Amino acid sequence: MSLQNYTSVTDFVLVGLPILIHFMGIIFASFFLIYIINLTANVSIMTVILSDSTLHTPMYFFLWNVAFLDICCSSSVVPKMLMDLVSEKKMISFYGCMLQVHFFHFVGSSQVIVFTVMSYDRYVAIAHPLRYTTIMSFNVCLCLVLCSLAIGFFHALVHTIMTVKLPFCGPNRVKHFFCDVKPLLILACADTSLNLLLIKRVTGTLTSTTLVLTILFYIFISRFLLKIKTSQGRRRALSTCSAHLCVVSLQYGTAVFTYMRPSTKYTLDQDRMAAILFTVITPALNPIIYTLRNKDMRKAMKKLCIRA
């Protein structure tokens, strides 16, 4: 049976954020400014890494990809959200909504996997410094990133296909500021228990597996850090790890809260607040954290500014 035969909803209305009309201008200006900071900071990181040959290492190759994914994650949601803040019609087409679901989950899950790959990269750099460039060759790094994107794509595809197959016969008001799986399931005119089970099993497995691997790599890293005799060497190793840990904590914190907490404790208002952190705040904070905690990045940025 084709989709049109059992789907009467052709458009969705994004309810957006529960804010008073008096604060609309302030909210719009704040989110717009944060989005510009996000774009500027992440593009700056990408430019610095490309332009400085001393940063052509596996760690910065992965950081370049994280910056790119940060831009994609925020851009999949924020421009539409800003338009809806100043528009009376907060409409999105059915297929536009499904595309947003897919792209958001594709980027988000890919980023989580890349963070785990970065943990492995830090482990190899600290545990096997003499073999680091051999183990983490460009081909290996490229393969790891491509595999991360492939897993993220198919993870998102599962949720998108399962959501598209649901009948939506009204109402069409999505109680969120973008199209996500859980708010859409509430509107479906059918049993969504399988979809909820998939969120727990598929997303839960991806999140928990990458989180456990990240924790294990940092346990191994901490063991090797204790063996470093000089305080300067230990501080240098810690500086690269601490920035990554801060970013990972923000990423996993919102992902676990949104998709892995018990359904009995699920509320859309809490989801919206977590989504703001995940799509608006965190992508703008990530490059700032990496730059502030990384001496090489600060030096490379100064050199680029002087040349400019």
TrEMBL record:
Record's bilayer topology term: Multi-pass membrane protein
PROSITE patterns in the cross-refs: G_PROTEIN_RECEP_F1_2
Any GO CC annotation of this UniProt entry: plasma membrane
Keyword Cell membrane among UniProt keywords: yes
InterPro entries: GPCR_Rhodpsn, GPCR_Rhodpsn_7TM, Olfact_rcpt, Olfactory_GPCR
SUPFAM superfamilies: Family A G protein-coupled receptor-like
Transmembrane segments: 12-37, 57-78, 99-120, 132-158, 205-226, 238-260, 272-292
Localization, UniProt: Cell membrane
UniProt domain G-protein coupled receptors family 1 profile: residue ranges: 41-290
A GO MF label: G protein-coupled receptor activity
UniProt keyword terms in alphabetical order: Cell membrane, G-protein coupled receptor, Membrane, Olfaction, Receptor, Sensory transduction, Transducer, Transmembrane, Transmembrane helix
Name this polypeptide is given: G-protein coupled receptors family 1 profile domain-containing protein
Source organism (scientific name): Engystomops pustulosus
